[in-house]
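User: Reviewer 2 asked us to show a designed sequence for the structure in our supplementary figure. I'm pasting the structure tokens here. Could you produce the per-position amino acids so we can include them in the response letter?
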């Protein structure tokens, strides 16, 4: 045992979360934290980090507290916990969830800027954002891609005010007249400048 303070329960929880040993995106159970803490309480956080970092990344999620305690006792460290090895990569569902959260925050942010500045959004932008673009295939709620020509040679410039292709706006107007928009709950795209 070293003169450094022993491992605390919150440090054990942080280790388990950092190396994704327990939890799987859910809160870590107290029984798991207690079991790991009982086994590792004689070691410091730096020793436990070093022990976990020395284990193969594919195997670290299946390690036991006894293995970590043995590794920590056999190779003590004097320095601070190393940041040499990053945590395991995030799952695709985590990335998708985070991107969706950021997109919603961006929409709230641009709308707040417009409200604070007293700017008015162009109504055609919101209308065109309710349908899929027939030219560039931009989804509902997204601004049209800056495509000018398709592979079959069709040309179409985006409108500088709405940043949408004219065929998309025409399709949205036709769908609105027919009463069949495909909005599906998507946010309309945020325009990037002042429009008259």
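Assistant: Here is a per-position design you can include in the supplement:
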């Amino acid at each position: 045992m070293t003169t450094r303070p022993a491992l605390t329960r919150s440090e054990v929880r942080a280790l388990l979360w950092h190396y994704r040993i327990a939890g799987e995106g859910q809160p870590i159970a107290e029984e798991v934290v207690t079991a790991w803490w009982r086994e590792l309480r004689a070691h410091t956080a730096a020793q436990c980090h070093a022990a976990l970092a020395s284990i193969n990344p594919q195997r670290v999620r299946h390690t036991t507290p006894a293995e970590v305690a043995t590794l920590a006792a056999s190779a003590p460290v004097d320095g601070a916990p190393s940041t040499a090895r990053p945590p395991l990569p995030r799952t695709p569902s985590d990335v998708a969830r985070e991107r969706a959260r950021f997109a919603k925050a961006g929409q709230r942010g641009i709308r707040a800027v417009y409200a604070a500045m007293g700017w008015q959004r162009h109504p055609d932008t919101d209308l065109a954002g309710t349908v899929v673009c027939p030219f560039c295939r931009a989804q509902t709620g997204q601004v049209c891609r800056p495509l000018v020509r398709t592979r079959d040679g069709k040309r179409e410039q985006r409108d500088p005010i709405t940043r949408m292709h004219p065929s998309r706006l025409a399709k949205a107007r036709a769908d609105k007249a027919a009463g069949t928009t495909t909005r599906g709950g998507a946010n309309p795209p945020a325009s990037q400048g002042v429009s008259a």
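For the response letter, you might also mention the following. The helical segments are 9-18, 30-40, 45-53, 65-74, 92-117, 123-128, 166-178. The first helix runs from residue 9 to 18.
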